Amino acid sequence: MRRMTILWLFLAALTGGILYHTSQQVTDGRQRLAVINDDIRKEDETIRVLQAEWSYLNQPDRLERLSKQYLDLAPLKGKQFAKLADVPEQPAAPPAAAAPVAAAAADTTPPAPDVKAAEKAEAIATGMPPVKGGAKPAPKVAKAAIVKIRRPPALPAPRHVPPVATAESAPDRSFSDVIRSLGVR
Amino acid sequence: MAELTPHDNTPLPQAAPALAQAKLRIGMVAAMLLIGYLAICLRLVDLTMFRTKPAPELAKAEDVKPLNHPLRGAIIDRNGELMATSLSMPSLYADATVTENAAAEAHELAQILPGQDEQDILRKLTSGKHFIWIARNITPKQEYAINALGHPDLSFQDEERRIYPNAEMAAHVLGYTDVDGNGIAGIEKSFNAQLQKGDKPVQLTIDLRVQHILHRELSAQVAKFHAKAGVGMVMDVNTGEIIAMVSLPDFDPHYPGDASDDAKFNRASLGVFEMGSTFKLFSTAAALDSGQVHFGSMFDATDPIHYGRFTINDYHAKHRPLTVPEIFMYSSNIGTAKMADSLGENALKDFYERMGFFEPAPIELPERGSPLYPKPWREINTLTCSFGHGIAVSPVHLMRAASALVNGGILVTPTIVKSDKQRLSLNPEGTRVVKPQTSAEIRQLLELVVADGTGEKAYVEGYNVGGKTGTAEKNKNGRYEATLLLSSFLGVFPIDNPRYAVLAMLDEPEGIPESHGFATGGWTAAPVVAAVVSQLGPLYRIAPDLDSNRDITRDMAMYLKDIKEGKTLASIGADR
């Protein structure tokens, strides 16, 4: 009987201890959870702010203005598209014949003033997927030579070279200015 | 555990009834405890072994609830670009009962809060109220500066602020919210419940890039022709998705209170207009689809039609019988009216009803215009409605019906929300309203108008645009005013396999020297459509048709008398 009592007491103490331990763990867990939830909320808010700022910075008219100011690019026109069939097949030249091929390519390249043709050539060169099938890609040396020869006529002189100073002084409202202007009303 | 209660089943000893009774009681208590423990054990086994799945969700529901209500959800475009979102920003309030030196404090606050009037702040601080807002949605920097002042009467509360990164660009589509964050117009209103839950953004069918192009081109033209207002829309003719929707004048959705009711009015979906000649598209389609009228059918447009006190005239009168393509190309009111009349009683009315012109267009915006049409429908109504007078519909109606005519004959449901499953379940396939043959014929007519008719200014190299001009006189106090015009152009491209319909409408444009004084659809609206198409085509990687030797005028020559004689229509401005 006495042994039984001791055993029971022991068991009761044990379960009590385990229970206490578990409840402590739960309390700690809850606290951690609250902290994490709060962090998540804060991160969420930060993400929202950054997203808003990102899309503010990517306003189409802003990009358009910046592109006009800093890039020598214009919107794609319909007539700049070319069909795959229009692309001349690249000759499968062995490495030894690299130089003549490059020279031939240079010959067929339109002269500098013909900007329209150069535009088209550029569109073909960059916009279209490479020709698949029979023709083996030309060796690296020849490719580089072609590019080197083609480049100068394809790129007209930049209309405007942006100095760093104007970039600083560009009349661009920052995102925080916008937020500020929203608040005080 | 059973051996711990050995007396449960033993018979009561006669000698010690009191003891036996005690033992019985103890036994009963022990039995009850045993049952209790067993129940707990069973429940534990049940929870841990048989219900492993719902338990985490149960716990989640209890603990992971966010502390305060979520920020209002975002609205994104079809490519995921942000169009509207909510940020949490602090607002400043005061407990005016504990304000000590109101004048000095107001002065300090006015320094930190530019745009706030010092007298105004002072008035608030001396109001004696327990709670009064000083400034809503201030910046973190301002919050820091005000905290640094150390006035005990000032406190902050985080408040939600709706942000529209592109300001007015899609203002009418998005709508706006009130101070408490309830949507009260546009998508903000119709999807208020979902947005308030905050978990999933609402994705629109709008493409921000196209929206920008349309907004830019339309605004430029509205300014150029000193127009009072403008409407622009781009719709995918096969799905009914609205890619861009612009209504001018527009407003900054951050400050709807500052905008006039006129600016907040969504002309593209809520406004209904007598469209004028663009409606000839539908009356001609009704005629062709009936099988009674063919391209070769002639209608006498020699003399004006007199009907009661009405006279129907042509603005570019040919004074001779015209074929159907000629009627369409020269936009002859007389010819169109006679053609519609020849179909018989109510044929046109029934066709318009089928095209959805008699009820509000089913679109997800709360701003849906109810069409105006003659009730009852008399014979004269058939005559005038055939060329778009006497019936007023919204631009969404017009685009929806025009899409059906060019996409092969299926009337689709216009939509502006990408993930609107409820709508998809309505009628995903659309309903057939005209035969595929009719649709093909309408496409030919539209191409003819741009190739050699009133819509030449909508021509875009490589993208075969078809379209119809419209120049309606506006009804002012019951009279049609020849100087107040609603000029429009409805374009479709590529015309042999249409993908997009583009609409431009200018309200009361004025003739300018460059247009030789004309303010008609061909001069004012068609260039907008051309500009949009020439940018939209490459943007959506639509292969241009550069080397085809298509010539619709040649193909249709047998129906065109003037063309056969080697003349072309050189009078774009004369179209109505």
Description of the molecule:
The complex is a heterodimer of chains A (185) and B (576). With 185 residues, chain A is mostly helical. Chain A folds into 3 domains: 2-58; 61-68 and 162-183, no CATH class; 80-154, no CATH class. Chain A has 7 helices and no strands. The N and C termini of chain A lie far apart (83 Å). In chain A, 8% of the residues are buried. Chain B has 576 residues and is α+β, with helices and mostly antiparallel strands. Chain B has 2 domains: 75-203, Alpha-Beta Complex (Penicillin-binding protein 2a (Domain 2)), CATH 3.90.1310; 211-574, 3-Layer(aba) Sandwich (Beta-lactamase), CATH 3.40.710. Helix content of chain B is 37%, strand content 17%. Chain B has 22 helices and 18 strands. Chain B has helices at 17-50, 54-63, 102-112, 118-125, 140-149, 171-174, 186-190, 192-197, 208-224, 261-264, 280-290, 324-329, 333-342, 347-354, 379-385, 395-406, 421-426, 436-452, 521-524, 526-539, 552-555, 561-564; strands at 75-76, 82-94, 132-135, 154-163, 202-203, 229-236, 242-248, 273-274, 298-300, 305-307, 310-312, 321-323, 392-393, 410-411, 431-432, 466-476, 479-493, 500-507. In chain B, the strands form 6 sheets. In chain B, strands 1, 2, 3, 4 and 5 form a 5-stranded mixed beta sheet that branches. In chain B, a hairpin with a 5-residue loop joins strand 1 and strand 2 (82-94). Residues 62-67 and 564-576 of chain B have low confidence and may be disordered. Classes of the chains: A mainly alpha (185), B alpha+beta (576). The A-B interface holds A 4, 30, 33-34, 37-38, 41, 44-45, 48-49, 51-52, 54-56, 58-61, 75-81, 83, 176, 179-180, 182-185 and B 4, 63-64, 66-67, 71, 74, 81-83, 85-89, 113-116, 135-139, 142, 161, 163, 165-166, 169, 208-209, 212, 216, 254-255, 460-463, 534-535, 537-539, 543-544, 546.
What is the tally of beta strands of chain B?
A: 18
Low-confidence stretches of chain B: 62-67, 564-576
Derived from helix and strand composition plus strand pairing, the structural class of chain B reads alpha+beta
**Rg of chain A (C-alpha, Å):** 35 Å
Overall domain count of chain A = 3
Helix content of chain B: 25-40%
